[in-house]
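User: Structure please.
Assistant: Input sequence and predicted structure:
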Amino acid sequence: MVKDSSKPVKKTLRYKLLRALKLADEPERDNLIYYQTGGVKRKAHATWYRGEATNFFPDKKAIAQQNAVDEYIGKGWFPDAPFITRKHYITAFGSCFASEVTKYLYREGYQVFGRDMRLNSYVVRSGEGIVNSAAIRQQFEWAFEGKTPKIELWHDKEGVPGDYSAEVRQATRAIFEKSDIFILTLGLSEVWYDKPTGEIFWRAIPKRDFDAARHGFRVLGAVENLDNLRQTYQLIRAHRPDATVIMTLSPVPLAATFRPVSCITASSVSKASLRVAIDELMREVGPPAESKLYYFPSYEMVTSFLPNPMKDDFRHPSEESVKFIMQTFKRNFLR
């Protein structure tokens, strides 16, 4: 016999309502702390020291409030006031989500290098494929320091190799030297590498070139990702000391994993490693007002905030999600 669950549900809802009303009216006690989420007064045990900053996890009602994203996602990450103007030159590259950022900024009238395909630079022509932290670091080491990979590492999405010509390097350096804002979108931690040199490819290896004796696969850990991001940040500081760096983590999961585990769990690890590395770097270099390093939490907006963020492919954010993310970016970063 199936039990009728309607009465317990009604009882529970009534209990919660009465409890909230009672809490709002009752005098505050010394052994409790009181806070609000979603406009509702709540309480928690005061037994434990909670530090100078305590931010409680929101419930569904709190998330549904207007501008809740600024309070429950952006707090501590967004600048005090927007600072990017149409006079600034912006370079955005990394994962495929970087192309969404570039398109939006261009439509809004900002100066974005990524929309000018006449520029002979990989960060423009193949910027959406430079998805791992090592590949991003390679572009800055090559452009600023002339450090050239020992083997053919860079391929476009069709598998066509990119050369290391002086012309392309100088074009890339010119873009970097003119950039006031760098938006670096990290995508994944799974990489293919060359065993003799240890050098890491942008993408997977073209089938025609694969050699099991020479090529290997691995996952970049948080320490390795941190080192790559640190070196990238330090190179920007050395050559563009006044530039601002904004790091983001792409909300687009892996299309496939090369590990013998489910893609969803592998993608979780891939993202977590990068997210930890970004956080470690930010704590290392200090407050954004001093370091000019920001994190924009587009990843958390998709994974922990928006109710139905993905297209039917369950990988790419819907147009509505991208619009919401970019409007949030505009409200907090763009003048």
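DSSP finds twelve helices and nine strands in the chain.
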